[in-house]
Each structure stands twice: as structure tokens, then as C-alpha cells.
Amino acid sequence: MGYNDVVFEKDSVFLVTGGAGFIGSNLCQVLLEKGYEVRCLDDLSNGKESNVEMFQDHPNYTFIKGDIRDLDVCLDACDGVDYVLHQAAWGSVPRSIEMPLLYEDINIRGTLNMLEAARQKDVKKFVYASSSSVYGDEPNLPKQEGREGNLLSPYALTKRVDEEYAKLYTKLYGLDTYGLRYFNVFGRRQDPDGAYAAVLPKFIKQLLNDERPTINGDGKQSRDFTYIENVVEANLKACLAPSESAGEAFNIAYGGREYLIDVYRSLCKVLGKDIEPIFGPERKGDIKHSNADITKAKQLLGYDPSWSFAEGIDAAIEWYKENL
Ligand SMILES: NC(=O)c1ccc[n+]([C@@H]2O[C@H](COP(=O)([O-])OP(=O)(O)OC[C@H]3O[C@@H](n4cnc5c(N)ncnc54)[C@H](O)[C@@H]3O)[C@@H](O)[C@H]2O)c1
């Protein structure tokens, strides 16, 4: 269980793209703690220097400020790298509906550049962030790889195209690629601010400040909220997965199902707040229910998530209390 026992060769070099973001900075942190060399590539368009400044003086850490839309930047960053953990992308379904062209550039072209750079530089494994949004309007639960529906946003389309390119790079060029379909990740350093912030950190911050959060829709939507430590585990284990499992995409979640209104009520309870939420309109492109079947990742990656939603939310709240 977890990633404590995951070990790589002593001199292993990791490149984390989007390393100054929420998930990327957590990957950098764990890899440095484990003693490996880490390169962080980020253009700081959405990530923050404050997410990575604590690594700045670490002898095994290098920060590269650069844009994955530039192939030369990607080639330089991949030079001498064993494992790529590609997280850089623009997130948010609603924002992608407003700016589809930008999403095409960053999420598709940027990922293609990274795949090409990894191929040219003989990287051992290319692990990349996909998303549960690729399931689109497929109504059946739990969501299962191979049973995808019609896409509902440009963001989802970019992730689907990334998966197809990665599969092709495995088939045509023998690059070992592993797509991780994250389901609503949460935890330390996730940004609570801005119009496109994820719901959990936003609610926690608003409640801590005695503000009234807005729930989009009736609150009866459900999600498979996944604590960051489980996502780190999935990334590390995918780096050690056999080549026979390459070219595939895997659900990365806890395998649970939480209703937003219940989550809201338990946040209020834990934080000792008695604040009624505002109920706003549903968001375009959102799916009503999401819950993952994680059997494939368990069987082929050895993924065995150890952090339940309840444990994760307690840890996240503690972090926000100390760091906001
Ligand atoms: N957080 C979630 O719940 C979730 C769910 C599904 C998928 N994902 C995916 O996981 C990955 C990481 O998500 P996150 O939540 O950490 O987001 P984040 O925004 O915190 O991190 C993304 C990072 O990528 C960087 N970036 C963006 N465009 C770039 C570019 N052109 N060149 C270099 N760097 C660039 C940003 O500055 C940022 O630091 C993304 O690919 C996202 O689509 C996240």
C-alpha cells in the first residue's frame, strides 16, 4: 500500500512538467525526499513559485522556467532524463469552453512536444496526466476504461487526444507511455482562489473566512474525490510498470463516491461552522456523477490507494488551517 516501498535506481532522474502546480509540486517533493534528481519544468502560467521555493536550495533540484509549446524547451528538459511525469496543462472544464484554442495549443500540442522530446531523448517511461472528463456523458457507474461516452468540453477532448497520441507513440516508437485518468484530486497546495478553483479548497477557504460558498446545481452531484498521496503513488508505480501495460490509460481514484452536499455538511461540521450554502445554476460541461472502477490500475500498475476520502480531507483541512 502507498509508495513508501517504491524504489528506483539510485541515480534516477525525473522530469516533472507542471511541477510548480498542485500535483506536480507534490511529485517533486516526494521524489526529492526519496533522494532522486528532479527537474521541474513550468511556465508559471498557473503554478506558483511559492509551491516550489522550498526546494530551491536542494542539491538534487533544478527549476526550468519554460513553455511546453516550445519543442526546444522540451528537448533540453528531457536530456538525460529517465522518467517523465507530465502534468503541465491548463485545467478547468468551464474555462476550456471559453478558450478552446488555447487548450488545443497547450494541452494537445504541448503534450505532443513532450512525447516527441521523450522519444528523441530515449526516456524510459512517460507517465502523463489524463482526466476522468474523457468519460463524457457515459452514464454507467462505475466508470470503466474502454467504456467512454461523448465528450462534453474542449478540455476533455484535449485529454482524449493526448491519450491517442500516447498510445501511438507506444505502438509506433516503443515509448512506454501510461495515462493516468485522475478523478477530482485534492490536498495540500491546491489553489483555493480564482474563478476556476476546485470545489474542495474553495469551500474550505470560504468557510474558514466565514463566507457563504456557492454550490453549482442542487448539490446532489457525486464525485470520487481522490487524495493527493494516492495520485503520487500512481505516478511512481506507473514508472515501474512493465512495458506490456504501456500505451494504456488507467483510472486513478479512491473508488468511492461522495455527494457534494454531504461533503459540504461534513466540512461545516469539522470546521465548526453553521453556514448555509448558496445554490447556483449547474455548470456547462459538468457531469452529474463520477465514480471510478480502479481494478485496471490495481492489476496492471500495482496501485493500491491507502488514503480514504475521510483521511485525506482531515489532512487537507489541517494543511489549509496552517497555510492560508
Ligand atoms: N487536480 C485535479 O483534480 C485533476 C483532475 C484531472 C486531471 N488533472 C490534470 O493533472 C495535471 C495537473 O493538474 P493540477 O491540478 O496540478 O493543475 P495546476 O494548474 O495546479 O498545475 C498545472 C501546472 O502546469 C503549468 N503549465 C500550464 N501550461 C504550461 C505550459 N504551456 N508550459 C509549462 N507549464 C505549464 C502551470 O503553470 C501549472 O503549474 C493537469 O494535466 C490536469 O489537467 C488534474
Characterise this structure.
The protein has helices at 22-33, 71-78, 93-98, 100-120, 154-173, 199-208, 228-239, 260-271, 295-301, 309-323; strands spanning 13-17, 37-42, 61-65, 83-86, 125-131, 176-182, 185-186, 214-216, 222-223, 226-227, 248-252, 258-259, 278-280. The chain has 324 residues and is α/β, with parallel strands linked by helices. The chain has a domain at 13-186 and 228-255 and 289-307: 3-Layer(aba) Sandwich (Rossmann fold). β1 (13-17), α1 (22-33) and β2 form a beta-alpha-beta unit. α6 (199-208) runs parallel beside α8 and α6 crosses α10. The longest helix has 21 residues, at 100-120. The site of nicotinamide-adenine-dinucleotide (NAD) has 28 residues, from α1, α4 and β5.
Kindly state the mean pLDDT as a whole number? 97
CATH domain class name of the domain at 13-186 and 228-255 and 289-307 = Alpha Beta
SS class: alpha/beta
**Spatial shape:** globular
Strand content: 15-25%
Please tally the helical runs, counting DSSP H or I stretches of 4 or more residues.
Answer: 10
Question: Hetero groups bound?
Answer: nicotinamide-adenine-dinucleotide
Assign the CATH topology of the domain at 13-186 and 228-255 and 289-307: Rossmann fold
Major pleated sheet: 7 strands, parallel
Helicity range? 25-40%
Order of helices and strands: EHEEHEHHEHEEHEEEHEEHEHH
- Please list the strands of the largest sheet in the order they lie side by side: 3-2-1-4-5-6-11
